[in-house]
Structures are given as C-alpha cells and as structure tokens.
Design a protein that fits this description.
The complex is a heterodimer of chains A (537) and B (313). Chain A has 537 residues and is α+β, with helices and mostly antiparallel strands. Chain A contains 14 helices and 7 strands. Helix content of chain A is 46%, strand content 12%. Chain B is α/β, with parallel strands linked by helices and 313 residues long. Chain B has 11 helices and 13 strands. Chains A and B meet through helix 2 and helix 7 of A and strand 5, helix 3 and helix 5 of B.
Chain lengths: 537, 313
C-alpha cells in the first residue's frame, strides 16, 4: 500500500502537476498583491454595475405598455377614444360625430346650374343658399357635423335689411339667415332641419338628406386601445377591416398591394428563411410592448453587454493590465532567477504563468457574468420567475470572454517578452485595432477584414449561441423592423457568418472556438520558443 | 547517479561569451568538484557571466558548459541538484520567508507538505527559524541574503552557486553566512562563492579561482597566491608631521628598501615583504617619537594583486 502510494506520488505527471500548481498559485497570489489588479477588476465591476443600473432603469420605463398608434387618445373629448371612433367610422375631431350618433345620409341636391331650382320636402338641409319657405321647422335638431353653419332658430326674429337679397347684400356674417316679411327665409350657406320648399338662388347650391336614428354605444375605456393588436398578422381590433360597421366610404385597405386587404405578408427566400414582413396599415399596429419590446430590449441588453462590455472592454483591459507583464516583470525585477533556477522548462513556465493569470480573470469573469445573468433573468420580461433560456446565452458569452482573455493574454505576454520596453504601446495599438474590428463585426459581420481580429471570432461565438438558444431572435428582428419596434436588436445581433453555407450556428460556433484556440496556442508556442532562446541578464 | 559522481560537477571547456563587441568570458577551461571554491575577481571580471552560463541564463558563444555532464542551456534537469543564489537583491516582499521557500521548493516537484517541512528545515539552517512567518519586506539586508540562500538549499542540492552572497551585509550577517557556507563545504557539497573582496574569500576557503577581464588568471590554493602577494613590491603610506625624521628611522630597517615623499606631510615606504614591514612598523614609530595620524596600505587589495599577477605572468 505504502509502496504503491509512493510510486503514484512520484510519477512525472504528478511532479509536473505540483510545479504547475506552485507557479499558478504564485502567479495568482502575485497578481492579488498588486494594486493595479484590484483597480482594473474594480473598474470592471463598476462598468457592469452601471450597465445593470441602466438595464433596471430601462426595464421600468420601457416595458410599460405604450400606445404605439395613439388610438387611445380622445381628441374631440366626446368620451369615445380614437380607436373606437375608427371602428365606427366616426370622426375623433368632431364632438357631434361619435359612435352611435345619428348620421346624415345624402338624398339629393341642386347644384349651381341645375334645373329646376326648387325642391320641397322634410329634410336636413346642408349649405343651402336661396329662399326657404317653411311649413315646419325642427328647432330641436342638432347639427350632424359641428363645423356646418347650423342655424340656431332661437333668435328667429331677425329681419332682412332693405334691398334685394343676393344683389344688394351678398352675405351675412352670423347668423347666416334672415326673415322676409312674408315668412320666407333668406339663407346663405346655412344648414338646418325642417319641412318646406327651397328655392336655390342661381349660381348657388343646396343639399339635403336625412339623419339616421342615433343609438347608444358604450364608451370604451382608453386602456382597450393600448397594446390591442398583438403581432400575429390579424387585425385583432378591427380598425382596418371595419367589418361590422362597414360604411360606403370605407375603401378596403391594401397598402402592401398583395391583393388581400388587412393582412400581413411574410416573405421567405428559397431556403425558407424569412426575408421581410410587410403589413397593411392598421394591422398589428399596436403590439404588446411588454411582450415584444420588452423581450427584444432584454435580448439586446444581453447581447450588447456580452459583446461590448465583456468581450471588447473587459476582454481587452484585463489582459493588458494582467498578462502583459506576466514574464516581463519577473525578468525586469530580477525575481525570474529564483523561478528559473528550478528544474523547470522555460516553456512550461510561460504556460503556468498564463494559467495563473487565467485563474484570476476567468473566475472574475464567470462571477460577474453569473451576477448579471441572475439579476437580469429574475427581473427580465416573461411569465416565468427565472428566464432559464438566458443561461445558455450567458454561457456562450462566458465562453467567448474566456477565449478572448486566453488569446489576448498569450498575445500580450508574448509581446511583453519580445519588446519589454515598447510592448505596452504595441499592445495598446493592437487593442484599438481589436476594438474597431469588434465594432465592425457587430455592425457588418461579413466584412472579411474583421476576420483578422480575435474579437471577430468571439462575437461570432455569441451570435451563434444566441441563434442556438433563442432561435426566434431572427423573427423578433423582422417583427421589430416591420412594425417599427426598433430596440437595437437588429444592430447588436446578426446571424453568424461562418457557417460554411449551411446556416447552422453550431458550425460557426465550432469554427470560431477552434480559430480562437489556435490563435492562443500559436501565440503561446511563439512566446515559448522566443523565451527558450532568450538570454536573461 | 554513480556515473555522475565520477565526472566533476562543473566542467567548462574553452568557454567564451561576448556581448556584441564586449568580451564577458574569454576562453575559460575549468573543472570544479567538491568543497568550497571562491571565485574572485573585481567588478566586471566575468563572475556573474560565468554563473549565468552555468545556470543556463546565457548561451556560451564558444565552448561547452557541463553541469553533471549536461548542457544547462538546453536541459534544465541538472537544476534538480543545484542551488543558485543570484546577485539580484529583489525578492517577493509580500511573501513570508516560509511561503517563499516552500513555494519554490514545490517547483522541485515536492508536495505542499514536503515543501513546508523542507522550508522550515533550511530556514532553521540559515538561522531564520524564528522570523520565518514574517514578510520578507520587513527583513534586513542580511536576512534577505539568508532567505535567498535558504531557497537555494531547500532541495538539498549537490552543487551550490552563490553570487556575491556577502554583498551589502553587516558584519554579523557576514559571519553567519560564512559559517553556513563553510558548513555546506564540510558536508561534502560543491560550493561556488563569488566575491570581489579577498578577505571574505580568505575566511571561507583556500581554494580559489581568480578571474580578471574575463580571463582565468589563477587557480589553486589561496596561500600560494598569498605568498606571491607578499613578495610583490608594496607601499605603505604614512601621514605624519615630520616625514623626513621618520624616513631616517625606517631606512635602516631590513624589509624597507626605499622611501619617498610623494607630497607634503606624507612618507611612502617601499618593501618586498609586507608582513615583515608591518611587524617593525610600530617599534620604529614609537622609538622615533614622531606623531603619526594615518597608515595606509594602498597596494593591499585585489586590483593591486591582480596587477602584480598579470605583470608577473
């Protein structure tokens, strides 16, 4: 037993393991003892906290339902909101015209040159200019339209002035009528209701019709016209179709010109991918914000935070401060001698140093991501208490960040080795390049120059993971674009590019991971071979 | 192991190292095995370069370096049996001595427990047992040197290389470090100690290697070299009010072969036998009743010895 145990503990592997453990541990303790490490890590926490605060704030403000099409307003203050008036085809700018109000129906008219120029009847007369001899006047009638020149018969005693009407005096200001001595009225573009004979003055006109029976329509609460038409391709609220209240002036609405009124057209390419959505007016115009804008904003936040905060900012700054001097500082301080006078290969030494660095930055990143993931998945939109579907995406972000930290760490460490003095400037320039290429990748992921950067591949990983775990993101984008619910999701996310024409996100994921690992391994190997042949003074 | 024991620990064959145009080490051949060997030479003589060649930090421009028969530049395996104390003064100040030594011990493949036990043992050996849990940053210069020595001894090496271990230490620390080195030598280990001060080496070992301008100047027993030193013309500088009166008293003495008055108030005595001259010096001064404010031996240093050796060979 003792003999066996001894053999086990003395194999080459366990010895390697102990050396790796010692250097890794030393590196972690060393980094922990530097103020700059804590400053960088603290700034990272601050950045993420700010983003979180911004997220929490926007979730409160934005996810309240918004009346996207404004049809909950009641502009004429008749108590019926615009949406209800639209369904009944009434005007929301006319207090007298509302759902259930009696409506004027046209019967006939005498135009400026029609013959004969007299008409008898019991009508509602509109814009009449001429002589009206009444047998009965409906003094109680109300104007069908508030903007017509309606006669208020209460002041019936107005006498016409001397002289010939339409010759000596062409119009009255108000009221636009007057009474002749024989009981006939002279009317000037006036509207009224009653029975009698109209004699229209040559060159002028008059129109008549009748008022329908009014009926009572319950006033809808304004809230009914907020988020009332969810995105489903159907005119849920009926303000496009107006089926039940179709009136003659309602022309069918086919603004997308596909021959079907009040529909939404979904256009696919030959591979079955959704290309665009074209909706007729007033269809799906007021979607449920807490469902769509909320979901879409939430995803935008996660994708944007993953790409910019984790991959591009933390991914660059952590290695710049922690990895650049991993071997260089030891060499400059003269403490490298203690480590190199041990039976350890210089190549191994670089590897273990990087392991120590990764030990710190990986645990830090994973912790930060866990905190952000937990908070956003708890307060994010959705019916479930915890948004479990977020976690695979966060894992993808963690993977991308870890790979970026590894790649930049090995690159910066190698640069620090080769150019102890000016390496930091080279690394800053390189960091700017990486940042710009990252921004380019976010906006135009298929620009081939971005493939020359590490950040491109990390962002591809996030894009691929988003596509895998939130497969309807593309749909949300299309809906957002089609119905004007822009939340930035179309800016921050694009389907992964490197799928080898398959469109399969797993292909892009694997390719990106392999490329990033290759970059890291390659840079470590270059660093090792340089360090192995470097004379240390 | 048995094969290693037959070959000397350190073998240099026609080793040269130059940095651009500057010669660091010039065609040195050397074999060292067993006991303490002092590597002596003024600053810039090539001591550190020699050690860095041994420790695989530098690649020889010519010739071959072998530690236990293995080239240290391409293979780090000899370091299993070597402890190295570099001239660098820097340590991880935030670590305790125990931490520092045990962490480095683990680089030899020891487990944490083994490393801790060994660290405690060697820190005790160098006399830092009581303070081993204090941060190195709070240590004095001599304690820091001893921490460096402890780390080099933690794996019980057969060959120990110490680059200027006494540099900057106070006399007490010096004595204690010297005792440690002598103790290591008496344990049968091969120890290489470099210094630019002859007296320091004299107190540790008799076996020395003298380097000068990158060349191997002398190699062998210190006393043989000491004799050479005593035989070479020496000057003794005496500062006095009456140099001429004192000169007349000295001129009749046997070891003195000449006097000079280099400047006002100074007397220079020339001798071939420094120790004999020093033995008559007090008697002559007392008898002449001249007041003397200062006596200097401008030639009794390594540079002067080396100058003489170079001139003599």
């Amino acid at each position: 037993m003792d003999d066996q145990g001894r053999k086990l503990s003395e194999t080459v592997w366990t010895q390697l393991d102990r050396k790796a453990g010692a250097i890794t541990e030393l590196t972690i303790r060393q980094l922990r003892n530097r103020i700059s490490t804590w400053v960088v890590l603290g700034v990272g926490v601050l950045l993420i906290s700010l983003l979180l605060a911004f997220y929490i704030d926007s979730i409160r403000a934005n996810f309240e339902p918004i009346d996207n099409d404004g049809d909950s307003e009641d502009w004429d203050n008749d108590g019926y909101p615009l949406g209800q008036e639209m369904i009944y085809g009434t005007s929301d700018y006319d207090t007298n015209n509302y759902p259930g109000s009696s409506e004027y129906v046209y019967l006939g008219d005498i135009d400026y040159n029609d013959q004969p120029r007299t008409h008898y009847g019991n009508h509602t007369w509109l814009y009449a200019t001429g002589y009206f001899t009444p047998t009965w006047i409906d003094e109680e009638a109300e104007s069908p339209f508030s903007y017509y020149n309606w006669i208020d018969w209460g002041g019936r005693g107005i006498d016409c002035p001397d002289g010939s009407p339409f010759d000596d005096w062409t119009y009255f200001q108000s009221p636009s009528y007057c009474a002749l001595e024989n009981g006939t009225y002279v009317v000037f573009g006036a509207s009224f209701a009653g029975e009698g004979e109209i004699s229209v003055e040559p060159g002028w006109s008059a129109e008549w019709g009748y008022m329908t029976e009014s009926f009572f329509v319950e006033k809808h609460p304004k809230s009914m016209y907020i988020d009332e038409d969810p995105i489903n391709g159907i005119d849920d609220d009926g303000d496009c179709l107006k089926d039940e209240y179709q009136t003659e002036d309602n022309s069918p609405n086919d603004s997308n010109r596909n021959g079907i009124s009040c529909d939404v057209e979904w256009i696919y390419d030959q591979n079955g991918n959704l290309v665009s959505i074209r909706a007729d007016n007033n269809v799906d115009e007021d979607p449920d914000d807490s469902e769509h804008i909320g979901e879409s904003s939430h995803r935008t936040f996660i994708i944007g935070t993953g790409k910019i905060a984790f991959v591009m900012i933390l991914g660059l700054f952590l290695p710049l401060f922690l990895a650049l001097g991993l071997v260089r500082d030891e060499s400059e301080n003269g403490t490298l001698h203690y480590l190199l006078s041990k039976p350890i290969h210089r190549g191994e030494f670089i590897l273990y140093r990087l392991l120590g660095y990764l030990g710190i930055v990986v645990s830090y990143t994973v912790m930060l991501i866990l905190i952000v993931a937990l908070i956003t998945s708890l307060i994010g939109p959705g019916d479930s208490i915890v948004r479990l579907s977020d976690y695979p995406v966060w894992m993808g972000i963690a993977l991308a960040t870890i790979l970026v930290l590894t790649a930049y760490g090995s690159i910066f460490n190698t640069v620090g080795l080769v150019m102890p003095k000016y390496g930091v400037y080279i690394c800053i320039l390189y960091g700017i390049w990486e940042f710009l290429m990252g921004l380019f990748t976010i906006t135009i992921p298929n620009a081939s120059i971005t493939m020359l950067s590490v950040s491109h591949w990390a962002i591809q990983i996030i894009d691929a993971v988003v596509m895998i775990s939130w497969s309807d993101t593309s749909l949300i984008q299309q809906k957002a674009d089609a119905f004007g619910l822009e939340t930035g999701i179309s800016f921050f996310w694009h389907p992964p590019v490197h799928t080898l024409e398959t469109g399969n996100p797993f292909v892009a994921l694997i390719i990106s991971v392999v490329i990033m690992l290759s970059i890291s391994i390659g840079m470590i190997a270059i660093g090792q071979s340089i360090f192995r042949n470097k004379e240390i003074m | 192991m048995s094969e290693d024991n037959k070959t000397p620990s350190v073998i240099l064959e026609n080793v040269s190292k130059w940095y651009g145009q500057v010669m660091g080490i010039n065609d040195i051949s050397l074999a060292i095995d067993g006991g303490v060997t002092g590597i002596l030479g003024p600053n810039g003589a090539g001591k550190s370069t020699l050690f860095k060649l041994l420790m695989g930090r530098l690649k020889p421009s010519q010739g071959s370096v072998k530690l236990f028969g293995i080239d240290p530049w391409s293979d780090t395996s000899p370091y299993r049996r070597i402890g190295y104390v570099s001239e660098s003064e820097r340590l991880y100040d935030w670590m305790t001595a125990q931490d520092f030594v045990s962490t480095l011990a683990r680089l030899h493949g020891m487990t944490r427990e083994e490393a801790n036990a060994r660290a405690e043992h060697v820190l005790d050996f160098v006399g830092l047992h009581d303070v081993r849990h204090k941060e190195i940053g709070k240590y004095s210069k001599g304690m820091r040197q001893r921490v460096k020595i402890a780390h080099a001894l933690v794996h019980d090496p057969d060959l120990i290389i110490l680059d200027e271990p006494l540099h900057g230490c106070d006399p007490i620390a010096r004595t204690s470090i010297m005792n440690v080195i002598r103790e290591l030598g008496s344990q049968g280990k091969t120890v290489l100690v470099s210094s630019h001060i002859l007296e320091e080496i004299e107190r540790i070992t008799e076996q020395i290697v003298i380097l000068h301008n990158g060349r191997l100047l002398a190699l062998g027993n210190l006393y043989a070299i000491r004799d050479l030193l005593d035989k070479h013309p020496h000057r003794i500088m005496i500062t006095t009010d009456e140099p001429r009166k004192l000169a007349s008293a000295f001129i009749s003495e046997e070891p003195v072969y000449g006097v000079r008055f280099p400047e006002e108030g100074k007397l220079e005595i020339q001798t071939n036998d420094l120790s004999a001259a020093h033995s008559v010096l007090p008697r002559v001064i007392v008898n002449s009743k001249v007041s003397v404010s200062r006596i200097d031996n401008p030639d009794d240093n390594l540079e002067s010895l080396l100058g003489y050796l170079i001139g003599g060979t």
